[in-house]
C-alpha cells in the first residue's frame, strides 16, 4: 500500500501473511526496503516464536510385543512451545506409580525430553 507521508514523501506499507506450523518456530525473516533514488537499503529482521501444544516427534507404534517375563524400553519424544513437556504413563486407565525416567535433554530448536519406561508389558 502506498500513501503520502507527513513530510510529503512516499510511505509504502508491506504486509507478509503466513500460515504457521510448529516447524516455523525460531525462523527468521528479513524485510528489505530500498529507495532506488537514493540507492539506500534498510533491513529489519524478526524471529518467530510460534506457540504450539505438545506433539510427538515420532509417533509411538500402536502395539509393542513383549514376552512374559521380558522387558521393553519405550522411548517417546515430544516437543512444545513453550516447554518443557511433561509426561505421564497410564496402564488400563490408571497412572503408573513409578515410571523409570532415564534421560532428559534440551535441543537447540526447543525443549525435548527423552523418557523411558522399562518393564511395561502390553496385554490385549
From TrEMBL:
InterPro entries: Ig-like_dom_sf (IPR036179), Ig-like_fold (IPR013783). SUPFAM superfamilies: Immunoglobulin (SSF48726). This is Nephrin-like. It comes from Hirondellea gigas.
